[in-house]
Amino acid sequence: MSKTRFQITISVDGYMAGPNQDEENPLGVGGEDLHRWMFALANWRQSTGYTGGVDNASSPVMDEMFANTGAVVMGRNMFSGFRGPWSNDPDWRGWWGEDPPYHMPVFVLTHYAREPLVMEGGTTFYFVTEGVDAAMARAREVAAGKDVLVGGGANTIQQALAGSYVDEFLLSVSPLLLGAGERPFDNVSGLRVEQTQVIDAPGVTHVRYRVVRD
Amino acid sequence: MSKTRFQITISVDGYMAGPNQDEENPLGVGGEDLHRWMFALANWRQSTGYTGGVDNASSPVMDEMFANTGAVVMGRNMFSGFRGPWSNDPDWRGWWGEDPPYHMPVFVLTHYAREPLVMEGGTTFYFVTEGVDAAMARAREVAAGKDVLVGGGANTIQQALAGSYVDEFLLSVSPLLLGAGERPFDNVSGLRVEQTQVIDAPGVTHVRYRVVRD
User: Fold this and answer.
1) ipTM over 0.90
2) Is pLDDT of A89 > 80?
3) What H or E segment, with its residue span, contains residue B35?
4) Residue B173: its chain A contacts at CB < 8 A?
5) CA distance B95 to chain A (A)
6) Max Cα separation, chain A?
7) Which of B202, B162, B166 lies closest to B7, judged by CA?
8) Mind listing the pLDDT tens digit for each residue in B4-56?
9) Does A176 touch chain B (CB under 8 A)?
10) A175: closest CA among A150, A200, A154, A208?
11) Residues of A with CB below 8 A from B194's CB?
Protein backbone atom coordinates (compact mmCIF):
# COMPACT_ATOMS: atom_id res chain seq x y z
CA MET A 1 0.00 0.00 0.00
CA SER A 2 1.28 3.43 -0.80
CA LYS A 3 2.30 5.57 2.14
CA THR A 4 3.25 9.12 2.90
CA ARG A 5 6.41 9.03 4.96
CA PHE A 6 9.52 10.89 5.92
CA GLN A 7 12.95 9.91 7.11
CA ILE A 8 15.12 12.49 8.76
CA THR A 9 18.17 12.71 10.96
CA ILE A 10 17.88 14.44 14.31
CA SER A 11 20.33 15.22 17.09
CA VAL A 12 20.11 13.73 20.58
CA ASP A 13 18.38 16.97 21.59
CA GLY A 14 15.89 16.63 18.76
CA TYR A 15 16.99 19.13 16.11
CA MET A 16 16.95 18.29 12.42
CA ALA A 17 18.81 21.47 11.50
CA GLY A 18 21.06 23.79 13.44
CA PRO A 19 20.52 27.50 14.02
CA ASN A 20 21.25 30.30 11.54
CA GLN A 21 20.53 28.57 8.26
CA ASP A 22 21.93 30.41 5.26
CA GLU A 23 23.54 29.65 1.92
CA GLU A 24 26.79 28.74 3.64
CA ASN A 25 25.09 26.52 6.21
CA PRO A 26 22.03 25.10 4.49
CA LEU A 27 21.38 22.83 7.47
CA GLY A 28 22.27 25.51 10.00
CA VAL A 29 25.41 25.69 12.08
CA GLY A 30 26.46 22.14 12.94
CA GLY A 31 23.58 20.66 10.98
CA GLU A 32 25.73 18.97 8.38
CA ASP A 33 27.38 16.87 11.10
CA LEU A 34 24.03 15.19 11.68
CA HIS A 35 24.49 13.31 8.42
CA ARG A 36 27.97 11.92 9.00
CA TRP A 37 26.54 8.40 9.23
CA MET A 38 25.18 8.85 5.70
CA PHE A 39 28.24 10.46 4.15
CA ALA A 40 30.24 7.37 5.14
CA LEU A 41 28.02 4.97 3.19
CA ALA A 42 29.05 3.48 -0.15
CA ASN A 43 25.51 3.70 -1.52
CA TRP A 44 25.17 7.36 -0.58
CA ARG A 45 28.58 8.16 -2.03
CA GLN A 46 27.75 6.38 -5.25
CA SER A 47 24.41 8.20 -5.61
CA THR A 48 26.16 11.55 -5.32
CA GLY A 49 29.14 10.90 -7.56
CA TYR A 50 31.72 9.97 -4.96
CA THR A 51 33.56 6.68 -4.65
CA GLY A 52 34.48 4.54 -1.68
CA GLY A 53 32.52 4.28 1.52
CA VAL A 54 31.30 1.45 3.67
CA ASP A 55 28.36 -0.94 3.88
CA ASN A 56 26.80 -1.30 7.29
CA ALA A 57 23.46 -1.49 9.08
CA SER A 58 22.61 1.99 7.80
CA SER A 59 22.92 1.01 4.13
CA PRO A 60 19.33 -0.29 3.83
CA VAL A 61 18.07 2.92 5.45
CA MET A 62 19.73 4.90 2.70
CA ASP A 63 18.44 2.53 0.03
CA GLU A 64 14.85 2.78 1.14
CA MET A 65 14.81 6.57 0.98
CA PHE A 66 13.73 6.53 -2.66
CA ALA A 67 12.69 2.89 -3.06
CA ASN A 68 9.04 2.61 -4.06
CA THR A 69 8.81 6.40 -3.90
CA GLY A 70 6.89 8.20 -6.64
CA ALA A 71 7.08 11.84 -5.58
CA VAL A 72 8.72 14.16 -3.06
CA VAL A 73 7.34 17.19 -1.23
CA MET A 74 9.82 19.64 0.24
CA GLY A 75 10.04 23.16 1.58
CA ARG A 76 11.50 26.04 -0.38
CA ASN A 77 14.53 26.13 1.88
CA MET A 78 15.47 22.59 0.91
CA PHE A 79 15.50 23.60 -2.70
CA SER A 80 17.18 26.97 -2.34
CA GLY A 81 19.01 28.56 0.52
CA PHE A 82 17.85 32.10 -0.05
CA ARG A 83 14.32 33.32 0.58
CA GLY A 84 12.08 35.77 -1.18
CA PRO A 85 11.37 36.25 -4.89
CA TRP A 86 13.27 34.07 -7.35
CA SER A 87 14.51 37.09 -9.28
CA ASN A 88 17.34 37.71 -6.85
CA ASP A 89 19.28 34.90 -8.50
CA PRO A 90 17.61 33.57 -11.65
CA ASP A 91 20.48 31.18 -12.40
CA TRP A 92 20.22 29.36 -9.11
CA ARG A 93 18.89 25.89 -9.81
CA GLY A 94 18.84 24.59 -6.23
CA TRP A 95 21.24 22.89 -3.88
CA TRP A 96 21.12 19.63 -5.68
CA GLY A 97 23.30 20.13 -8.72
CA GLU A 98 22.37 19.32 -12.31
CA ASP A 99 21.44 15.70 -11.57
CA PRO A 100 19.55 15.73 -8.26
CA PRO A 101 19.27 12.40 -6.43
CA TYR A 102 15.48 12.29 -6.69
CA HIS A 103 14.85 11.10 -10.27
CA MET A 104 11.15 11.80 -9.83
CA PRO A 105 8.77 14.77 -9.48
CA VAL A 106 9.56 17.04 -6.53
CA PHE A 107 6.95 19.52 -5.29
CA VAL A 108 8.53 22.57 -3.67
CA LEU A 109 6.38 24.61 -1.27
CA THR A 110 7.00 28.29 -1.92
CA HIS A 111 5.27 31.65 -1.84
CA TYR A 112 6.75 32.53 -5.23
CA ALA A 113 5.44 31.04 -8.46
CA ARG A 114 7.96 29.66 -10.91
CA GLU A 115 7.86 27.48 -14.00
CA PRO A 116 8.73 23.80 -13.45
CA LEU A 117 12.45 23.10 -13.58
CA VAL A 118 13.39 19.98 -15.50
CA MET A 119 16.73 18.59 -14.44
CA GLU A 120 18.80 15.69 -15.71
CA GLY A 121 18.03 12.16 -14.60
CA GLY A 122 14.28 12.49 -14.29
CA THR A 123 13.99 15.05 -11.50
CA THR A 124 11.51 17.83 -12.14
CA PHE A 125 10.91 20.53 -9.54
CA TYR A 126 7.37 21.86 -9.45
CA PHE A 127 6.79 25.03 -7.45
CA VAL A 128 3.56 24.97 -5.47
CA THR A 129 2.19 28.23 -4.11
CA GLU A 130 -1.17 26.90 -2.88
CA GLY A 131 0.10 25.30 0.34
CA VAL A 132 0.75 21.85 1.72
CA ASP A 133 -2.68 20.39 0.91
CA ALA A 134 -2.27 21.20 -2.76
CA ALA A 135 1.29 19.88 -2.81
CA MET A 136 0.29 16.61 -1.14
CA ALA A 137 -2.62 16.13 -3.52
CA ARG A 138 -0.44 16.66 -6.57
CA ALA A 139 2.29 14.44 -5.18
CA ARG A 140 -0.12 11.61 -4.41
CA GLU A 141 -1.61 11.82 -7.86
CA VAL A 142 1.69 11.74 -9.68
CA ALA A 143 3.09 9.04 -7.37
CA ALA A 144 0.42 6.74 -8.85
CA GLY A 145 0.34 4.21 -6.05
CA LYS A 146 3.94 4.58 -4.95
CA ASP A 147 4.92 6.36 -1.72
CA VAL A 148 5.16 10.10 -1.23
CA LEU A 149 8.31 11.17 0.58
CA VAL A 150 8.13 14.36 2.64
CA GLY A 151 11.70 15.53 2.22
CA GLY A 152 11.80 18.34 4.78
CA GLY A 153 12.72 20.76 6.23
CA ALA A 154 11.29 20.96 9.70
CA ASN A 155 8.49 23.33 8.79
CA THR A 156 7.29 21.11 5.95
CA ILE A 157 7.45 18.01 8.20
CA GLN A 158 5.40 19.90 10.80
CA GLN A 159 2.81 20.87 8.19
CA ALA A 160 2.59 17.31 6.86
CA LEU A 161 2.15 15.94 10.39
CA ALA A 162 -0.37 18.62 11.37
CA GLY A 163 -2.34 17.85 8.22
CA SER A 164 -2.42 14.13 9.13
CA TYR A 165 -0.70 13.20 5.89
CA VAL A 166 2.10 11.11 7.39
CA ASP A 167 1.67 7.33 7.74
CA GLU A 168 5.18 6.41 8.81
CA PHE A 169 8.49 7.99 9.65
CA LEU A 170 12.02 6.91 10.37
CA LEU A 171 14.14 8.94 12.75
CA SER A 172 17.91 8.58 12.55
CA VAL A 173 19.33 9.86 15.82
CA SER A 174 22.92 11.08 15.49
CA PRO A 175 25.15 11.19 18.56
CA LEU A 176 25.52 14.92 18.83
CA LEU A 177 23.73 17.88 20.36
CA LEU A 178 23.02 21.06 18.45
CA GLY A 179 21.64 23.17 21.29
CA ALA A 180 19.38 25.15 18.97
CA GLY A 181 17.76 24.89 15.58
CA GLU A 182 14.61 23.40 14.07
CA ARG A 183 12.58 20.53 15.47
CA PRO A 184 10.31 18.33 13.39
CA PHE A 185 7.59 17.85 16.02
CA ASP A 186 7.08 21.43 17.16
CA ASN A 187 3.56 22.75 16.53
CA VAL A 188 2.20 19.21 16.18
CA SER A 189 -0.41 17.90 18.60
CA GLY A 190 -2.39 14.72 19.03
CA LEU A 191 0.03 12.56 17.07
CA ARG A 192 0.00 8.92 18.20
CA VAL A 193 2.72 6.54 17.09
CA GLU A 194 3.88 2.98 17.44
CA GLN A 195 7.50 1.86 17.33
CA THR A 196 7.88 -0.70 14.54
CA GLN A 197 11.64 -1.09 14.02
CA VAL A 198 14.95 -0.26 15.67
CA ILE A 199 18.24 -0.43 13.80
CA ASP A 200 21.48 -0.32 15.74
CA ALA A 201 24.04 1.11 13.32
CA PRO A 202 27.55 2.53 13.73
CA GLY A 203 27.26 6.07 15.04
CA VAL A 204 23.50 6.35 14.61
CA THR A 205 20.25 4.80 15.86
CA HIS A 206 17.37 4.40 13.43
CA VAL A 207 13.84 4.05 14.79
CA ARG A 208 10.79 3.57 12.64
CA TYR A 209 7.36 4.73 13.81
CA ARG A 210 3.94 4.11 12.37
CA VAL A 211 1.30 6.79 12.87
CA VAL A 212 -1.73 5.34 14.68
CA ARG A 213 -5.15 6.54 13.55
CA ASP A 214 -8.50 5.77 15.09
CA MET B 1 35.68 2.92 37.41
CA SER B 2 32.94 4.85 39.14
CA LYS B 3 30.81 7.05 36.93
CA THR B 4 28.22 9.73 37.26
CA ARG B 5 25.32 8.80 35.03
CA PHE B 6 21.63 9.15 34.43
CA GLN B 7 18.99 7.07 32.73
CA ILE B 8 15.73 8.67 31.77
CA THR B 9 12.77 8.09 29.51
CA ILE B 10 11.91 10.70 26.91
CA SER B 11 9.18 11.04 24.32
CA VAL B 12 9.81 11.05 20.58
CA ASP B 13 9.67 14.83 20.78
CA GLY B 14 12.25 14.87 23.55
CA TYR B 15 10.32 15.55 26.75
CA MET B 16 11.08 13.72 29.98
CA ALA B 17 8.00 15.15 31.70
CA GLY B 18 4.77 16.60 30.41
CA PRO B 19 3.42 20.10 31.07
CA ASN B 20 1.67 21.27 34.26
CA GLN B 21 3.40 19.15 36.87
CA ASP B 22 1.56 19.04 40.18
CA GLU B 23 0.78 16.60 42.96
CA GLU B 24 -1.77 14.84 40.80
CA ASN B 25 0.53 14.65 37.79
CA PRO B 26 4.05 14.39 39.24
CA LEU B 27 5.42 13.77 35.73
CA GLY B 28 3.17 16.35 34.13
CA VAL B 29 0.16 15.67 31.95
CA GLY B 30 0.86 12.52 29.93
CA GLY B 31 4.24 12.05 31.55
CA GLU B 32 3.39 8.81 33.31
CA ASP B 33 2.70 7.17 29.95
CA LEU B 34 6.39 7.56 29.14
CA HIS B 35 7.16 4.78 31.59
CA ARG B 36 4.73 2.16 30.33
CA TRP B 37 7.64 0.03 29.12
CA MET B 38 8.91 -0.06 32.72
CA PHE B 39 5.59 -0.67 34.45
CA ALA B 40 5.24 -3.86 32.38
CA LEU B 41 8.47 -5.39 33.65
CA ALA B 42 8.56 -8.15 36.24
CA ASN B 43 11.66 -6.71 37.91
CA TRP B 44 10.14 -3.25 38.19
CA ARG B 45 6.89 -4.68 39.54
CA GLN B 46 8.75 -6.74 42.09
CA SER B 47 10.82 -3.75 43.27
CA THR B 48 7.67 -1.76 43.89
CA GLY B 49 5.56 -4.43 45.59
CA TYR B 50 3.51 -5.60 42.62
CA THR B 51 3.46 -9.07 41.14
CA GLY B 52 3.41 -10.35 37.58
CA GLY B 53 4.98 -8.62 34.63
CA VAL B 54 7.25 -9.67 31.82
CA ASP B 55 10.95 -10.18 31.13
CA ASN B 56 12.20 -8.68 27.90
CA ALA B 57 15.07 -6.67 26.42
CA SER B 58 14.26 -3.81 28.79
CA SER B 59 14.77 -5.91 31.93
CA PRO B 60 18.55 -5.37 32.10
CA VAL B 61 17.98 -1.62 31.68
CA MET B 62 15.81 -1.65 34.76
CA ASP B 63 18.30 -3.83 36.65
CA GLU B 64 21.22 -1.55 35.97
CA MET B 65 19.45 1.53 37.32
CA PHE B 66 20.73 0.87 40.83
CA ALA B 67 23.42 -1.75 40.14
CA ASN B 68 26.81 -0.56 41.33
CA THR B 69 25.20 2.72 42.38
CA GLY B 70 26.25 4.25 45.69
CA ALA B 71 24.27 7.47 45.82
CA VAL B 72 21.52 9.39 44.03
CA VAL B 73 21.13 13.12 43.37
CA MET B 74 17.66 14.41 42.55
CA GLY B 75 15.68 17.61 42.37
CA ARG B 76 13.19 18.65 44.99
CA ASN B 77 10.31 18.00 42.64
CA MET B 78 11.25 14.35 42.37
CA PHE B 79 11.05 14.04 46.12
CA SER B 80 7.96 16.10 46.70
CA GLY B 81 5.34 17.45 44.34
CA PHE B 82 4.73 20.71 46.09
CA ARG B 83 7.18 23.60 46.18
CA GLY B 84 8.10 26.11 48.79
CA PRO B 85 8.82 25.67 52.49
CA TRP B 86 8.43 22.22 53.99
CA SER B 87 6.08 23.48 56.68
CA ASN B 88 3.10 23.39 54.34
CA ASP B 89 2.88 19.64 54.89
CA PRO B 90 5.26 18.36 57.56
CA ASP B 91 3.97 14.79 57.30
CA TRP B 92 4.75 14.48 53.62
CA ARG B 93 7.62 12.04 53.28
CA GLY B 94 7.98 12.13 49.51
CA TRP B 95 6.50 10.32 46.53
CA TRP B 96 8.30 7.15 47.23
CA GLY B 97 6.39 5.57 50.12
CA GLU B 98 7.89 4.24 53.31
CA ASP B 99 10.36 1.93 51.56
CA PRO B 100 11.73 3.88 48.57
CA PRO B 101 13.40 1.86 45.81
CA TYR B 102 16.79 3.49 46.35
CA HIS B 103 18.19 1.69 49.41
CA MET B 104 21.07 4.18 49.51
CA PRO B 105 21.72 7.85 50.29
CA VAL B 106 19.70 10.26 48.15
CA PHE B 107 20.68 13.93 47.95
CA VAL B 108 17.73 16.19 47.25
CA LEU B 109 18.44 19.66 45.81
CA THR B 110 16.21 22.18 47.54
CA HIS B 111 16.12 25.78 48.68
CA TYR B 112 14.68 24.73 52.03
CA ALA B 113 16.80 23.11 54.70
CA ARG B 114 15.46 20.01 56.39
CA GLU B 115 16.84 17.30 58.64
CA PRO B 116 17.78 14.04 56.89
CA LEU B 117 14.88 11.66 56.52
CA VAL B 118 15.72 8.03 57.28
CA MET B 119 13.33 5.64 55.57
CA GLU B 120 13.02 1.88 55.68
CA GLY B 121 15.27 -0.32 53.59
CA GLY B 122 18.39 1.83 53.69
CA THR B 123 17.18 4.95 51.88
CA THR B 124 18.09 8.23 53.57
CA PHE B 125 17.10 11.53 51.99
CA TYR B 126 19.57 14.35 52.61
CA PHE B 127 18.40 17.86 51.75
CA VAL B 128 21.10 19.98 50.13
CA THR B 129 20.61 23.74 49.97
CA GLU B 130 24.10 24.62 48.66
CA GLY B 131 23.47 23.71 45.00
CA VAL B 132 24.43 21.02 42.55
CA ASP B 133 28.20 21.19 43.15
CA ALA B 134 27.75 20.49 46.84
CA ALA B 135 25.26 17.71 46.18
CA MET B 136 27.56 16.03 43.65
CA ALA B 137 30.53 16.29 46.00
CA ARG B 138 28.61 14.73 48.86
CA ALA B 139 27.17 12.01 46.63
CA ARG B 140 30.56 11.11 45.22
CA GLU B 141 32.06 10.91 48.65
CA VAL B 142 29.36 8.69 50.10
CA ALA B 143 29.24 6.52 46.96
CA ALA B 144 32.78 5.46 47.87
CA GLY B 145 33.82 4.29 44.42
CA LYS B 146 30.42 3.24 43.20
CA ASP B 147 28.44 5.23 40.63
CA VAL B 148 26.41 8.34 41.33
CA LEU B 149 22.99 8.28 39.66
CA VAL B 150 21.46 11.63 38.74
CA GLY B 151 17.82 10.75 39.23
CA GLY B 152 16.20 13.82 37.63
CA GLY B 153 14.11 15.77 36.94
CA ALA B 154 14.96 17.76 33.86
CA ASN B 155 16.36 20.75 35.70
CA THR B 156 18.71 18.61 37.77
CA ILE B 157 19.85 16.70 34.67
CA GLN B 158 20.54 20.04 32.97
CA GLN B 159 22.56 21.25 35.94
CA ALA B 160 24.55 18.02 36.10
CA LEU B 161 25.31 18.22 32.38
CA ALA B 162 26.15 21.91 32.49
CA GLY B 163 28.50 21.24 35.41
CA SER B 164 30.26 18.50 33.39
CA TYR B 165 29.47 15.90 36.01
CA VAL B 166 27.90 13.33 33.72
CA ASP B 167 30.04 10.53 32.25
CA GLU B 168 27.33 8.44 30.65
CA PHE B 169 23.60 8.43 30.09
CA LEU B 170 20.96 6.08 28.77
CA LEU B 171 17.94 7.47 26.97
CA SER B 172 14.84 5.32 26.74
CA VAL B 173 12.71 6.72 23.94
CA SER B 174 9.03 5.92 24.33
CA PRO B 175 6.76 5.90 21.28
CA LEU B 176 4.63 8.88 22.14
CA LEU B 177 4.68 12.65 21.78
CA LEU B 178 3.93 14.99 24.64
CA GLY B 179 3.90 18.28 22.73
CA ALA B 180 5.11 20.26 25.73
CA GLY B 181 6.95 19.74 28.99
CA GLU B 182 10.54 19.56 30.19
CA ARG B 183 13.55 18.61 28.15
CA PRO B 184 16.78 17.23 29.61
CA PHE B 185 19.18 18.96 27.22
CA ASP B 186 17.83 22.49 27.29
CA ASN B 187 20.33 25.05 28.60
CA VAL B 188 23.24 22.70 27.93
CA SER B 189 25.94 23.62 25.44
CA GLY B 190 29.14 22.08 24.20
CA LEU B 191 28.22 18.53 25.18
CA ARG B 192 29.88 15.92 22.98
CA VAL B 193 28.73 12.33 23.07
CA GLU B 194 29.39 8.94 21.53
CA GLN B 195 26.76 6.26 20.97
CA THR B 196 27.88 3.11 22.78
CA GLN B 197 24.83 0.84 22.84
CA VAL B 198 21.39 0.47 21.27
CA ILE B 199 18.74 -1.84 22.72
CA ASP B 200 15.68 -2.69 20.65
CA ALA B 201 12.97 -3.50 23.18
CA PRO B 202 9.19 -3.86 22.94
CA GLY B 203 7.66 -0.41 22.83
CA VAL B 204 10.85 1.47 23.65
CA THR B 205 14.32 2.15 22.24
CA HIS B 206 17.22 2.43 24.65
CA VAL B 207 20.38 4.25 23.55
CA ARG B 208 23.45 4.64 25.68
CA TYR B 209 25.81 7.58 25.22
CA ARG B 210 29.22 8.26 26.66
CA VAL B 211 30.21 11.87 27.25
CA VAL B 212 33.40 12.69 25.32
CA ARG B 213 35.91 14.94 27.03
CA ASP B 214 39.11 16.41 25.65
Assistant:
1) yes
2) no
3) none
4) 173, 207
5) 28
6) 47
7) B166
8) 999 999 999 999 999 888 777 878 888 899 999 999 999 999 887 889 999 99
9) yes
10) A200
11) 175
